[in-house]
Amino acid sequence: xxxxxxxxxxxxxxxxxxxxxxxxxxxxxxxxxxxxxxxxxxxxxxxxxxxxxxxxxxxxxxxxxxxxxxxxxxxxxxxxxxxxxxxxxxxxxxxxxxxxxxxxxxxxxxxxxxxxxxxxxxxxxxxxxxxxxxxxxxxxxxxxxxxxxxxxxxxxxxxxxxxxxxxxxxxxxxxxxxxxxxxxxxxxxxxxxxxxxxxxxxxxxxxxxxxxxxxxxxxxxxxxxxxxxxxxxxxx
Length: 236
Hints:
alpha+beta; globular
């Protein structure tokens, strides 16, 4: 279909723009910077965050990522890594609208994992209200960082909508090597320098459900995560 055609040169430009965004001194996430420096920041260009067109592609990428990470763990070569899904379409949207479409994509990806009977990572809970909640794809736990042009937090702004998937286990490894607290403090200090204050939504895993952090929008205690999964239903 004509509307799905895309410019290969623009894809290269977008991928380079995302790398430059992460590389910028003001960008606070030192984990993403580490992934970029080690060549472990993978960028996948997809069609539109409001469409399910590329959901199968994204899910296959996540399954491959989970398998490769497990293999790298076993070989002792599990470098810090991030998977950035950048969507070509750049519609103007509010934080609420971005959040809705982001969760539609997550729901679709989670449904595919359920349909393929992939195991849910036992290190996290499938219950979005649980302080130990995490997404799971291919048996590995993930959390998502949403980015888009209309984000109120400067660290979450990018010229196109994006979803960055990070592996929970990487942060377990950082904690075990006593590097996590130092990295977290560096991120908080950089975020404060960029925005003038620390993101009030940031919580440590186990303090509150991380689901409220994914979109980057500040939400209240009455916020309800829209995600439903068979894995969560089985827990209840």
